[in-house]
Every structure is written in structure tokens, then in C-alpha cells.
Amino acid sequence: MAVLRDEAVYDYSLSEIESKYLEWVRDIKYMILNRVQFKAFQIRDRRKNQFLSVNFPIKSETFAVKCSKRGNDVYRFRNYGVPSHTLCFAL
Predict the structure, then answer these.
(1) Contact present, 41 and 51 (Cβ < 8 Å)
(2) How far apart are CA 16 and CA 18, in angstroms?
(3) What residues form DSSP beta bridges with 50?
């Protein structure tokens, strides 16, 4: 019998718990990241007769990183040094 924090009671057998855990571990999640490089440009404001500094994006890279979950390959790599070939890829 398993009890959650909200005291809901679930009557799972050990094999069902193992099955649900493996299903959760095998559910792969990726975090999408976007790196943007900016460059400052000087723009003249004719009304105020001064220069303004404005940052414009000049380069952008998007990539995905596989999330670490207890039991998956990323978790094993980060904690135990077991190599993995599916940690990151570029989009």
C-alpha cells in the first residue's frame, strides 16, 4: 500500500510500482535553451543631439538539453560518471 502526502491511499503491488517507476524514467524530457549574442550600437538622437547606446541581437543559437531524472542516463552520468551519448543536441 502506498500513501501520498495528501493521504490518498493507492493499493499498488510491488510490480506495479516498479512498472510505473520505469515508465517515468523512460519518459524523456528536454529543456530548450536559446543563447542570444547582442552587440551595442550607437544611434544619434537628432532631437536631443546626443548618442544612444542600443543593443541588437546579432547571433542566436537554440539547443536542447536532456533533463536529469533519478535513474535515467543523464542522472547516472552526472552522479557516477557513466557515459551517455544522448545528453545534448543542437536544433
Answers:
(1) no
(2) 5
(3) 45
Q: What was the pLDDT predicted at 4? A: 52
d(CA 34, CA 86): 19
Given a cut of 70, the residues of the chain with pLDDT beneath it are: 1-9, 82-91
Phi/psi of residue 50, nearest 5 degrees:
-150, 165
Q: What is the CA radius of gyration of the chain?
A: 24
C-alpha cell at 70: 533519478
Record the cell numbers describing residue 80, joined without a space: 557516477
Residue carrying C-alpha cell 520505469: 22
| Biggest CA pair distance of the chain | 77
Instruction: Answer for the pair 13, 2: CB distance below 8 angstroms, yes or no.
Output: no
The two beta strands, 30-45 and 50-66, are: antiparallel
Query: What pLDDT is recorded for position 84?
Result: 58
Length of the chain: 91
